[in-house]
């Protein structure tokens, strides 16, 4: 089955949910509680059947993750006048988003504000920034626009990168 990288990501999440469900089902059917002398009513699905399905589902997850990782290394986007792979672009986007948050925090500080610490009863300490908060705020906004552009390039590539995903139909449709 052909899927785009953008379609593969939710499929991987779906498979993880299925693994969790199977693990819980196996735990639930592994032990039955009866009173002494009663016959055991075995569940419809045995621990062995569920374990086999769980193993197959985990193998599918590993294969899907591998395909995603290969695609992220193979596919490239143009950024900062060079070609970078999606894996690097994703790391860069995360780091830049973190930088935007830090710059915005610095940009919201007042140039001068009273410190909560006292020297003695006659004086107060002041906290003074060593930078211009407005300039830093504007840098944050500019960087945020760049991060948005980078994220859009990644998203666009995810929607056009097609992969042949064996066993995807087990989880879709």
Task: Show the helix and strand layout.
Blueprint: E1 2-4, H1 5-30, H2 47-74, E2 76-79, E3 82-85, H3 86-107, E4 112-120, E5 123-128, H4 133-160, E6 162-164
Antiparallel strand pairs: 1-6, 2-3, 4-5
> Globular, elongated, flat, extended or rod-shaped: what is the shape?
flat
Radius of gyration based on Cα positions: 27 Å
In DSSP terms (H or I, runs of 4 or more residues), the helix count works out at 4
Portion in strands: 15-25%
Question: Roughly how many Å apart are the termini?
Answer: 11 Å
Q: What is the helix/strand order?
A: EHHEEHEEHE
What is the strand arrangement across the widest sheet? 1-6
Sheet/helix structural class: alpha+beta
The main sheet comes to: 2 strands, antiparallel
Kindly give the count of domains.
Answer: 1
Fraction of residues in helix: 55-70%
Given as residue ranges, the uncertain stretches (5+ residues, pLDDT < 50) are none
The overall pLDDT, averaged over residues, is: 94
How many beta-strand segments? 6
Summarize the structure.
The protein is an alpha+beta fold. It has helices spanning 5-30, 47-74, 86-107, 133-160; strands at 2-4, 76-79, 82-85, 112-120, 123-128, 162-164.
Could you characterize the architecture of this molecule?
It is a single chain. The chain is of the alpha+beta class and 173 residues long. It has one domain (2-170). It has four helices and six strands. A two-stranded antiparallel ribbon has the order 1-6. It has a two-stranded antiparallel sheet with strand order 2-3. A two-stranded antiparallel ribbon has the order 4-5. A hairpin with a 2-residue loop joins strand 4 (112-120) and strand 5 (123-128). It is flat, with a radius of gyration of 27 Å. The mean pLDDT is 94.
